[in-house]
Amino acid sequence: LAKTTQPISMDSYEGQEVNITCSHNNIATNDYITWYQQFPSQGPRFIIQGYKTKVTNEVASLFIPADRKSSTLSLPRVSLSDTAVYYCLVGEYNAGNMLTFGGGTRLMVKP
Amino acid sequence: DSGVTQTPKHLITATGQRVTLRCSPRSGDLSVYWYQQSLDQGLQFLIQYYNGEERAKGNILERFSAQQFPDLHSELNLSSLELGDSALYFCASSADRTYGYTFGSGTRLTVV
Predict the structure, then answer these.
(1) pLDDT, tens digit (0-9, with 9 covering 90-100), for A80-107
(2) Region A58-86 average pLDDT
(3) From CA B2, how far away is CA A51, in angstroms rounded?
């Protein structure tokens, strides 16, 4: 399993764009990059997933450079409700494999 | 509603007791995963079942055990409970060729 490294915490203000970068130097060819969001006392929620280049959905964008050794989750115009822990996971999904969650990034959005 | 159902939502029990946590996966998902999250800690993987068979094991204590039944629901059994077992226990499920897990809302276990 590819090891991931992401900042422990980040602060932002409402309306700003937030970029959280995750390093995964030993990512394997078949690995996908997935981001989850977790609010206190709730289960993690899938945000976005990608393999390469850029992926965008209604919630976020995911930027993946050509070497795939890192990825950046971009949250546009955050609000107070985006305060949560964000986890970056790297793994192969085609067989329902177990995934390991790291420490995540605790994002605090201030008014 | 994520489609993954966990019961009970809250459980308070005494040290030394045994409890059973239940998880019903999302319809069609064959894999079930159990995670433990202590206060302000990360998610610790405990165990995975796939279509009734144990698939992977993490840092699960010998006092803990799990199983997945033919209808694909799963139970996590915690015995000889200690104060340190107090935590949120999450169940997640995934399909065969899926792009992520779906988590339940968790069971908060308090051991007093």
Answers:
(1) 999 999 999 888 765 556 677 888 999 9
(2) 96
(3) 24
User: Which chain B residues are Cβ-neighbours of A60 within 8 angstroms?
Assistant: none
β-pairing verdict for A32-38 and A84-91: antiparallel
d(CA A46, CA B103): 9
A43 touches chain B (CB under 8 A): yes
**What residues of A are in contact with residue B31 (Cβ under 8 Å)?**
96
Cβ burial of A91 (10 Å; 0-12, 13-18, 19+) is buried
User: What burial class does residue B79 get, using C-beta atoms within 10 Å of its C-beta: 0-12 exposed, 13-18 middle, 19+ buried?
Assistant: middle
Chain B contact for A40 (CB, 8 A cutoff): no
**Burial of A24 (C-beta count, 10 Å sphere; 0-12/13-18/19+):** buried
Mean pLDDT of B56-71: 94
The shortest CB-CB distance from A44 to any of B50, B95, B103 is to: B103
